[in-house]
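Please, is this right?
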Amino acid sequence: MSEARPPHARTPGLRYVFPVAAGKLARFATRLRGGGSAFPGYLTNRLAPSLLPTLAGQFPHGVVFVLGSNGKTTTTHMVSEVLRAHGLTVFTNPTGANLPQGVTSALLADATLTGRVRADVAVLEVDEGYAADLADLLSPSVILSLNVQVDQLYRFYETERVADMMLEASTRASSHVVVNRDDPYLSKIDVDAMRGEVSFFGVAPEIIAASAHGLANADDTRSGEAGALGHRAFAEVTAVDGRAVTVSVDGSAVDITLPAKGLHYAADAAAALTVAARVLGSSFAADAAADGFARMAPAYGRGEVIPLRGAADGEQVEFVMFKNAPSLQMNLDALDGAPERLLLAIDEGTPDVSWLYDVDLDVLDHVDVVTGEKAYQLALRLEHAGIPMGLVEPDMEKAVAHMRSLPDTASGRQTWFVNYELMMIGRRILGHGDQEVARR
């Protein structure tokens, strides 16, 4: 998949020393105060607008974009780990900072002062609204579109617009386009309009039918065809048993272990295997891919397990992150039953929380703490559902202190359902504010 450098790409050099140094210093300063993943990239982009396009020509195996309403961070992590299991060095943006400034911030973590990143391939989570413009800058060889789900309507207005953004960006992929066969919008991709070869991934129909809420993809209200088109999937989930999943990859069964439970994670895994196979070509090996999954930790904030009181052998917290109705529903569907001890948190980063009334909460039998700036709106939804609550406390620090004060659970684990900002705050309170993840 090695290609000639795109004509607009520039070579990193001494002219970038000051902007990169300034960004690295800003990154150090913001990390000291426990956050600020995007500002260093914003500063560097302002000082050196031509730096980001230099990424395009630096990677022998090209640049991969991961798009989707949900699952971008997890799938980016999966693709990266599978490629690492094949011996590649991967540059990525692991914490979900997916706007241009976030990509540059990730670059600052790995780049030399001249802007050089020593890696074989870049795997980047990208915001759908910026995907086409970033594709023009970074010339991706592979673009993956995971799903179109109801999300950020205050920003995008209609799910149709989100689908169009993904499909428009996909026309920029030079080698491969990977699409969800089971998505009512994305499955209708115009294959002939793509520069790259189109591949599909999916989940066996009987598995989707057995799930309480399917894959939670948005209905296609534009074409008049409600369902997906049923393309042959290069990678298809054929069996799911907790974290143990079987994926048929080009006709061969591959048994893998997911980093967290849930049908949505199984679909993400099929997508990741398709992308890895397209990046690696004949070098793709199913046993190496399975080994990558076996050694894979949960993505940042998605199923991570962290000690509650600092002792590794004591009570633990499992973080379950959601950002919209589909992601909350799929994570609730993945529960084995009602959590023994549960914190639910939602903050001002969600302007309109009316979608909470679209979520089926029947799996819950109680909530110990409701927190975040919109705790009372969430508590009202729980009250309408008849779910008993303990403490309603908008302040996350006080909510965590209360959870710490409770007796240990029989299982040794609390479950915290949190949206993005409160996930970061919760991790910081528990002593895990460092946003870096291990790189090899």
